[in-house]
Amino acid sequence: MATGENRRRGGGAAAKKSAAKSSTSPRQQYGRPAEVVRSRDDDDRHGSRRIRPEASEPVSSGQAKRLWKPSTLLAPVPVVLVSCGGRAEQPENIITVAWAGTVCSDPPMLSISIRPDRFSHAIITATREFVVNIPTQDLAKATDLCGMKSGRDTDKFALAGLSRVAGEVVSAPLLAECPLNLECKVRKTVKLGSHDLFVAEIVAVHVSPELLDRRGKLCLEQARLLAYAHGEYYGLGKRVGFFGFSVKRPGTPRRR
Ligand SMILES: Cc1cc2nc3c(=O)[nH]c(=O)nc-3n(C[C@H](O)[C@H](O)[C@H](O)COP(=O)(O)O)c2cc1C
């Protein structure tokens, strides 16, 4: 898809033309073949791969790293179901978002990045609130579906089999099937280019009791969370450490 994003990033026809000039490409000065540079085209698919089969063969160790054109290759990232609407005459809707992240601890804040042409963008702009619902691996298909269909012409709650629950603070519905729901109020909107960044304060957090032990400690390892990397969904794997484990001395309490 020849989007403005592609053009800015050197994708599309212009990039192909420049990559084809293999003898003059600046990347070749570093010995990186132009064909590798143009083998991927970051676009609207949030990192999904369009790599030729032969190019996906693993390279043997000892070879120089390939230099690729700048792209959104931060991985893994969360993939979340953002529910919105329910007031200011806005319909309720769900959008799948991978460009999401925690941005502040106090006040607790997160951001989501949404293209202006998404149906949800207008809803969130009007209501200035949304809910980040964190899906489990069982919800991988529902998560993908909500990113494939638009609320303009589809009831994604019905399509994906997701049920609404009323929130505490915001009017946007929570998704009952997701074990964690973060109610958010937009504090700032930043136009970035292809996407607008909604920076929002987390005003209420809902945690499924099945994830709490007898002392009320959150046991997220039992949540079977989803992650997203380069266009593919993954189940979060086994725990390999905890915050501060690298410096913890035996017998001392765990750092929080
Ligand atoms: C895994 C995945 C991640 C996505 N991440 C984003 C994102 O971060 N921002 C965005 O604007 N669209 C993202 N999308 C695309 C939207 O979810 C998709 O265009 C959706 O149909 C928009 O729904 P709406 O028109 O009802 O708002 C993603 C889609 C998928 C499948």
Classification by helices and strands: alpha+beta
Under CATH at level 1, the class of the domain at 80-235 stands as: Mainly Beta
- Biggest sheet statistics: 7 strands, antiparallel
The total beta strand count reads: 11
The CATH topology assignment of the domain at 80-235 is Pnp Oxidase, Chain A
Secondary structure tally, helices: 6
Q: Give the CATH superfamily of the domain at 80-235.
A: Electron Transport, Fmn-binding Protein, Chain A
CATH architecture of the domain at 80-235: Roll
The level of helicity is: 10-25%
Low-confidence stretches: 1-42
Compute the average pLDDT.
84
| Cofactors, ions, other ligands | flavin mononucleotide
Taken in chain order, the helices and strands follow as HHHEEEEHEHHEEEEEE
Shape: globular
**Radius of gyration, whole Å:** 21 Å
Oligomer: single chain
Distance between the first and last residues' Cα: 46 Å
Sheet-strand content, in percent, reads: 15-25%
- Order of the strands making up the biggest sheet: 2-1-5-8-9-4-3
In short:
By secondary structure, this protein is an alpha+beta fold. The protein is 16% helix and 25% strand. The chain has a domain of 156 residues: Electron Transport, Fmn-binding Protein, Chain A (Pnp Oxidase, Chain A).
Characterize the structure shown:
With 256 residues, the protein is an alpha+beta fold. It has a domain at 80-235: Pnp Oxidase, Chain A. Helix content is 16%, strand content 25%. It contains 6 helices and 11 strands. The protein has helices at residues 4-8, 12-20, 34-37, 119-127, 140-148, 156-160, and strands at 80-84, 93-97, 100-104, 109-114, 129-134, 164-165, 174-175, 180-191, 196-207, 226-229, 232-235. The strands form 3 sheets. Strands 2-1-5-8-9-4-3 form a 7-stranded antiparallel beta sheet. A two-stranded antiparallel ribbon has the order 6-7. A hairpin with an 8-residue loop joins strand 1 (80-84) and strand 2 (93-97). The longest helix is centred in the N-terminal third of the chain and has 9 residues, at 12-20. It is globular and about 55 Å long. Mean pLDDT is 84; it is low at 1-42. The chain binds flavin mononucleotide.
